[in-house]
Amino acid sequence: MTNHEIDYKLYGDDMQFVEVELDPQETVIAEAGSLMMMDDQVQMETIFGDGSKSNQSGLMGKLLGAGKRVLTGESLFMTTFTNVGTGKKHVSFASPYPGKIIPMDLSQINGKLICQKDAFLAAAKGVSVGIEFQRKIGTGFFGGEGFIMQKLEGDGMAFVHAGGTIHKRELQAGETLRVDTGCLVAMTGTVDYNIEFVGGVKTALFGGEGLFFATLRGPGTVWIQSLPFSRLASRIFAAAPQRGGSKGEGSLAGGLFDLLSGDRK
Q1: Contact status, residue 82 vs residue 124, Cβ threshold 8 Å
Q2: Using one digit for the tens of pLDDT, what is the confidence trace for 146-195?
Q3: CA nearest to 212, candidates 139, 122, 153, 125
Q4: 67-81 average pLDDT score
Q5: Of 120, 117, 126, 108, which is closest to residue 51 (Cα–Cα)?
Q6: Which stretches of 149-206 are DSSP H helices?
Q7: 52 vs 69: CA distance, rounded Å
Q8: Quick check: pTM over 0.85?
Q9: pLDDT reported for residue 59
């Protein structure tokens, strides 16, 4: 194996976190802000890129690898956690919103996983975190939430998170599944995918389901989430009281809004 071998344990149900067990000198990489807690003698360090061998070919290679992460909306930098002690140590990472954490052993799925740009949580050091471009540039730029996907490559453990309930679907050769772009979490590298426009003007304008679908064709495995964070955020924003509008006067929510906004009568 070229990746560090790490053990792990999942805790919780709807707001999960993953505890990674590190042997001496083992390292796990994670997105900034995902740390929950860690033992003493776990050394935290910020690195440029993901620390994999594929991004270590000189300064230009590192710049290209980091630049790809910027296109997915992520930071140029990642954080590593290394056990510098003599015994086993633990470091835990939490999902940023209600949902599930999915452990992925890349060695069992031919070394490649394609996932939503904000789904990656953590991985064993050596796993390459890159970008998977949509082949058709037009649908890439206008394909909604899922047009740019992250690509995880290697033979170690990786952890992705998703919102709501997770559904795992095995696609047979030639079997096709159409998924809302926001609900697609991840898929194996053997799945052929495309972004297709929703036909019919009325459907596009009044259907409420967006203008694009992700069309997935087997063979391969796909993971689908029931509650994309973008959908959750839009509903919260729509339900939030606005100045000049109804604030639910006489209710606890209305009183709390008045108190926080300084609008006292």
Answers
A1: no
A2: 457 888 999 999 999 999 889 999 999 999 999 988 889 999 999 998 88
A3: 139
A4: 67
A5: 126
A6: 201-206
A7: 14
A8: no
A9: 54
